[in-house]
């Protein structure tokens, strides 16, 4: 395969920065570009998956939607890493809390991701490979988040294959018991794609709802708010 790819219309690798922030929602990508970046150019609109490159405090950064779920997002992760010479992808998204002390609007940084996804089947025999982010980037993000005064949690997340998931009560309670902080839908795939290509991946989330307290944010807030998470990702984005 060569560029442009079937899913990204950029005609050269230099249209995309070495670091790409990736929310699931392409409109959140547009919001980040409109509100945080300067000298912005659009490099993708294929299939409605908006992508932009601009500057944050003089640092060149791209932002692009990934769609929802591991199958959609891994198309973009793999194409960006393999064909556009991207070094780092930072997922910026929403998540549902699975712990009492992880509250609405708190930030979670994933130290690992577990999943029922079958993407690793037949890769490692009977070994259950642990999907983890780049440690140096993780440490930098955690320290920067605390420096900025954000309420931040660092730990394992669950990347679910289903948004409407009828998870058995026993499974949910065991995930809680073993310290899984929240549920989202893409990071397991990002960390695997980054490991495959020898690149860097990181997952940063804003808690948009709680599976413990049964509270949830509005659709508008999910699309256009959560600026602390966006700022944090931009601050630690490598040049």
TrEMBL record:
<dbReference type="GO" id="GO:0004850">
    <property type="term" value="F:uridine phosphorylase activity"/>
</dbReference>
<dbReference type="InterPro" id="IPR004402">
    <property type="entry name" value="DeoD-type"/>
</dbReference>
<feature type="binding site" description="in other chain">
    <location>
        <begin position="208"/>
        <end position="209"/>
    </location>
    <ligand>
        <name>a purine D-ribonucleoside</name>
    </ligand>
</feature>
<keyword id="KW-0808">Transferase</keyword>
<feature type="site" description="Important for catalytic activity">
    <location>
        <position position="222"/>
    </location>
</feature>
<comment type="function">
    <text>Catalyzes the reversible phosphorolytic breakdown of the N-glycosidic bond in the beta-(deoxy)ribonucleoside molecules, with the formation of the corresponding free purine bases and pentose-1-phosphate.</text>
</comment>
<feature type="active site" description="Proton donor">
    <location>
        <position position="209"/>
    </location>
</feature>
<feature type="binding site" description="in other chain">
    <location>
        <position position="24"/>
    </location>
    <ligand>
        <name>phosphate</name>
    </ligand>
</feature>
<feature type="binding site" description="in other chain">
    <location>
        <begin position="184"/>
        <end position="186"/>
    </location>
    <ligand>
        <name>a purine D-ribonucleoside</name>
    </ligand>
</feature>
<feature type="domain" description="Nucleoside phosphorylase">
    <location>
        <begin position="19"/>
        <end position="229"/>
    </location>
</feature>
<dbReference type="GO" id="GO:0005829">
    <property type="term" value="C:cytosol"/>
</dbReference>
<dbReference type="GO" id="GO:0004731">
    <property type="term" value="F:purine-nucleoside phosphorylase activity"/>
</dbReference>
<keyword id="KW-0328">Glycosyltransferase</keyword>
<feature type="binding site">
    <location>
        <position position="7"/>
    </location>
    <ligand>
        <name>a purine D-ribonucleoside</name>
    </ligand>
</feature>
<dbReference type="InterPro" id="IPR000845">
    <property type="entry name" value="Nucleoside_phosphorylase_d"/>
</dbReference>
<feature type="binding site" description="in other chain">
    <location>
        <position position="28"/>
    </location>
    <ligand>
        <name>phosphate</name>
    </ligand>
</feature>
<feature type="binding site">
    <location>
        <position position="47"/>
    </location>
    <ligand>
        <name>phosphate</name>
    </ligand>
</feature>
<dbReference type="Pfam" id="PF01048">
    <property type="entry name" value="PNP_UDP_1"/>
</dbReference>
<comment type="subunit">
    <text>Homohexamer; trimer of homodimers.</text>
</comment>
<comment type="similarity">
    <text>Belongs to the PNP/UDP phosphorylase family.</text>
</comment>
<feature type="binding site" description="in other chain">
    <location>
        <begin position="91"/>
        <end position="94"/>
    </location>
    <ligand>
        <name>phosphate</name>
    </ligand>
</feature>
<dbReference type="InterPro" id="IPR035994">
    <property type="entry name" value="Nucleoside_phosphorylase_sf"/>
</dbReference>
<dbReference type="GO" id="GO:0042278">
    <property type="term" value="P:purine nucleoside metabolic process"/>
</dbReference>
<protein>
    <recommendedName>
        <fullName>Purine nucleoside phosphorylase DeoD-type</fullName>
        <ecNumber>2.4.2.1</ecNumber>
    </recommendedName>
</protein>
